[in-house]
Structures are given as structure tokens and as C-alpha cells.
Amino acid sequence: MSESTEVAATAQTGAVVSGASASLWSDAWRELYRRVTFWVAVVILLFMGLLATVPSLFTSLGPNGRCDVRQAKLRPASWNPFGGGPHPFGTDTHGCDYWAQMVHGTRAPIIVGFLVTGIALALAIGLGSLSGYYGRLLDTVLSRITDIFFGLPLLLGAVVILTAFPSHGVLTESFVLGLLWWPTMTRLMRGQVLSIRDADYVQAARMLGARDTRIMVRHILPNAVAPVFVYAMLNVGVVIGYEATLDYLGVGLQYPTVSWGLQLSQAQEIFTDYPYLLIYPAVFLTATVLSFLLLGDAVRDALDPKLR
Amino acid sequence: MADEILCVRDVTKHFPLTRGVVFQHEIGQVKAVDGVSFELRKGETLGLVGESGCGKSTLARLLMGVERPTSGSVHFEDRDVSSLSKAELRRLRRRMQLVMQDPYTSLNPRMTVGDIVGEPFAIHGDPEGGRRTRVRELLEIVGLEPDHVNRYPHQFSGGQRQRIGIARALALRPDVIICDEPVSALDVSVQAQVMNLLADLQREFGLSYVFIAHDLAVVRHISDRVAVMYLGKIVEIGDEEQIYDHPTHPYTQALLAAVPVPDPTKRTGQIVLEGDVPSPTDPPSGCRFRTRCWKAEEICAAEEPALKVRTGRSAHPSACHFAAESGRS
After folding, report:
1. Which pLDDT score is estimated for A3?
2. Do residue B85 and residue B40 come from a single domain?
3. What is the structure's pLDDT at A187?
4. Is residue A73 in a domain?
5. Most buried residue among A59, A149, B97, B132 by CB atoms closer than 10 A?
């Protein structure tokens, strides 16, 4: 913005228009760019993402590959994983290389985390918008259904359903969790839509002759989804925690699938003697969950133009 | 009669008051607008003045066809606004637009100024010469820098935001603009700028305004005729001179007396109204103003005064049994 146009604007309207011209997302990006926690979270998540998508970059072994019971429970040579030796993280109770198992154990929790959040987010945006925007009978019915699902304790519900279908994979587990997960997000979405539905700018659009779909897509959704998206992003980490819990309890994923939760489960009786069996998966799990939480926090702050 | 563009006949709007969640029952009605009639001529400005809660904004929504009247009718040219289908109502939006009160909440914070002002075109089809060019033109017309199309509302001041709202209302070249207290959220210095802008636009585009305000002084500047509202009814209507120089309704006289005068020594005939505006759920019998009126007698409680021309020097309609030019006597 050159000085002369700024002066012209001032002359015409009596006040300077502040700030550079930019879009919401580029403003948000500029804000995120400066935050250390954002970059820490991004680096950790990129690393985990690489582990999940191309495990062959990090280990030549396949999942449960070349396990040798005679080599079981070999402690790592040192706490420095780069210290060399054939098993930098030691071996697990079945004699599998623990580093390879850690690498292959990344994919399942991350897929479950995103799938469950995706399913819940889709349901929440759809049902929440309908119920908030149209109100009346539709809202009453949808809200009561939400209440019923709220009444199901999440973990217990998942344990009961997953026990009833013992031979389930990643997809089934995600579906079951997703089905139990949407009520909180739906309520959040409904509340957002409800508060924005009567905003002046929505009224203004209506008075311009805008149709319902336009009002929803251009006015209500962009203003309503930010908190729901942020909640969803924070949520991925929480889902990964739940997935690990289910695995640990023995009702989640089953052998031969590899996941951090299953490794914790294997280690549960002997970890006082072999603490590294607990520590490695726990560190991976915690780092991932924490990174999602930090990322969600940073994005929330960056997306809110009023905090700038 | 041919030059009447908006004709309001006996329009009422009652909102039901309900109690109970499952078994709702009506416990009363808020009579927000209760029998209002006026007409707006082409190219004129009708000021609509009244204090908070007298039904001004509801009336604006009735005029726009957003609310349907409980009874009575609003005619735009020769069509009844409340009987229009959705598609017809959409077409009416091209002819009649609204400028809202609060410039801070009436602009979508996540849309650029260009998108906000261009939205009418997105709904009703692009204008000749392209949307972008027209949006820049509109911004220039309302006195904003056209290069600011990519900025967001929060980067502008209140007065500038209201200009954006005006540009949006102006986009479809309407014949009538309803201004619902367009300056009451602004600083006094900025108020004058926006009022002048509205007056300039009227001259340039031949617009008709219904100008709603709670302040007689603001309206005087721009109005050809002024209607004074009290508790959902028009109590006095007349041209600018009749209302400001020869008011006959006690409420108008009280409002005028309350307008601040630059020189306090010149202040004459101070009238201080006592009490509050009665609840629109249960308005007083007869004349609605009688509870606060110093002229009230028995007839005021028994019989509702009609809004009609009374004898006297200024021949304009006034809804008072004792309409007279003098103040407190």
C-alpha cells in the first residue's frame, strides 16, 4: 500500500484503513509461522506421518518380521538409539526388533485417529448445521438422539461393541469409535450455527435474497466451523489415546496388527523388569497426542482474527 | 397517488408470548406494531422517529417482507409484499434494500469487502461491465478506496463499515432503501458524513428512503416528511416544517423539547416526561400516551384518538384529542 493512496483514503473517510490486505488463511499462516510450539508439533507429526506412510525408510524389517523367540527381551545396548548394535531399541517378548515394531505400530493409531475424527466431523457438521439452522421439530429430534448417544459411556460402549465383534480391523474399530464420538462435536456445531443464524450479516444476506444453501455455505459455515475444526484437530490426539487404551485392554486391534497400544499390552506384566518395553511406546504415544493438542491450540489462536 | 412507491395500510404485528416447554400456551401478545399507515412517495425521505421499543425495527422488517404482518398490508407499487412468493420476494430485493443499524455486526467478518459488496451480484446475476468493475465503482461512490476490495471488515472504522453496508444496499440499484438507524452506532462527527453521503446518493440516484431514527435532530437534516411513533402507533405525521415548527401532539412536543440546544439560555418550554414507556404487552386503554401526558383527561382513557387532521393552523394528522401547537399550558 503506497502512502499516497493511504492519504487519499484518509481524506475521503477521515480514518486510515489499518493492516495489510490479506486473506484469513494467509493471516493465520503468518501468525503460525512465528510460533515455536507450532513448529515443534509439526516436526513431530511429520516424523510420525513418515513412519506411518513409508516405514521402509526407517527399517528393513516388515511388521513382526524375523522374530526369534531365542532373542526375546534383549535390552537395548544403550539408551542412545544411535549407539549401533543390531537392535537399537532391544527386542520385545517375542524376540522382534523393537524399533521395527515401533515404526510399524505408528500406522494403525494414526489412521484410527483421523478416520474417527473424520467420521465424527462429517456427522457433526451435517447434523449440527441442520439442527441449528432449521430448528423446530428437526432440532428437537436430532438433539434428543444426540442426548441418547451422550448417555452411552464412550469407553464402555466401545469395549462392549468391539467385544461383540471380536474379529475387527482398523476400519471396524474406527467406525465404532466414530459412531460414539460425534455427539460432542455435533453439539458444538449446533451451538455455533445457532448463534450465527441470527447474526446481522446473515439477516443482511437474507434480505439481499440469498437462498438457504448460499447462507449456509458462505455465511454460516465459514464462521461456525473454525472452533469445530480446532476441536477436531485436538481430538485426533485424544482418539489416538483411546485407541491405545482399547488395544491395551485387549479389545482393540489384535495380533498380527502392530500398534503402540498392543506393545504396551504385551509389556504390562513385565515392565518393572524391562522398563524400555513400556517407555518407548509410551514416549511415541505421548509425543503424538501432545503434538496434536499443541497444533490444535496454535491453529485456534491463529484463526481468530480478533486475537491478533 | 401515482407517485407512491410504498404504501402501508393499517399494518399490525403481534408476537405471541408463550410459556412452557412441552405444552406451550399463549399468555399474551407483544403488540410491536399496532395499526400503522403511511405512504412513501418516489424520491422522498420519510423519517420515522420513536424511542427504543416503539416498533420501528419491526416495522422495517415488515416493509422488507421478512416478517409477515398479523393484519393489514404493505404494498410496494401495486403488489402486496406479504403475499409474494419466495421467488417474487427475491425479485423485490432488487428494488428495496436495507441499511442496518450496527456496522460492526452487519458485515460477515470472514468475507472481503469485495465479496460483501459483490454478494448482491452473486445472488442476482452479474451486472454489465463485470462484477469487479462494478464493485470498485460502488466503493468509490460511497467514498472508499477501491483498492481496498481485498480487505476485511475488521480493518475498517465504524463509519467506513457503514459505507460498505450502504454500497451493498446500493449494488442492485434499488428504488427504496430502508435505513434502520444507520447512524446511531456512529460518532457524531461520522454521523454527519454518513448522512451527507445518503443525501448525495438520493440526489444522484433518485432514491426513496424510509429513515428510522430515535433522534428527531438526526432525521430533520434529511427528511421531507416525518412520522413520530409511540408504542407501535404513529402519533403524528407531517412535513418537516409541520413537525418541527408546529408540532401538535404532546409526545412530539416533548421529544422536540428534549433535543439539546447549543445555547442553554435560549432553551424554552422544557418538558420532562415522567415514567417509562408502558409495556407493549399491555398498552394503556384509549390513548397510549395518556399515562405520561400532562393534558390527559377522561376521554383519553375511554376513546382512542384517531390519527387525523385536527383543526388548527397546521393541517397535518395528529393522534391527540387535544392537539394544539402550544406546549405545556
Report:
1. 42
2. yes
3. 92
4. no
5. B97
Residue linked to cell 408540532: B247
Average pLDDT over residues A274-298: 90
Q: Are both B211 and B268 inside the same structural domain?
A: yes
Residue A222 C-alpha, separation from nearest chain B C-alpha, in angstroms? 7
Q: What is the span of the domain harbouring residue B143?
A: 106-173
The arithmetic mean of pLDDT across residues A92-99, rounded, is 84
Do residue B139 and residue B251 come from a single domain?
A: no
Q: How many domains does chain A have?
A: 1
Q: Which three cell numbers stand for residue B163?
A: 459505507
At B305 the pLDDT is 87
Contacts A–B by Cβ distance under 8 A: 107
* Chain A contact probe: residue of B21, B95, B119, B136 with most A CBs at under 10 A: B119
Average pLDDT value for residue range A132-151: 90
- Reported as a single tens digit per residue, the pLDDT across B183-223 is 888 888 888 888 999 999 999 999 999 999 888 888 888 89
**Residues in chain A whose Cβ is within 8 Å of chain B:** 1, 5, 8-9, 12-15, 17-19, 21-24, 199-201, 203-211, 214, 218-219, 222-223, 305-306
Domain count, chain B: 2
Complex ipTM tops 0.90:
no
User: How confident is the model over A46-62, as pLDDT tens digits?
Assistant: 999 999 998 888 888 88
Left (φ > 0), alpha (ψ -120 to 50) or beta: where does B33 sit? beta
User: B121 touching A, CB under 8 A?
Assistant: no
Which whole number is the average pLDDT over B42-50? 91
Residues B153 and B280 in one domain: no
User: For residue A88, is it within any domain?
Assistant: no
Mean residue pLDDT of chain B comes to 86
Within 8 A of B124 by CB-CB distance, chain A residues are 208-209
B329 part of a folded domain: no
Check which CATH number belongs to the domain holding B240 and give it: 3.40.50.300
- What are the angstrom distances between the C-alpha of A215 and each of A196, A303, B166? 11, 21, 20
Q: How far apart are alpha carbons A213 and A282 in whole angstroms?
A: 46
Backbone angles phi, psi at B99, to 5 degrees: -105, 125
The answer to whether residues B213 and B302 belong to one domain is yes
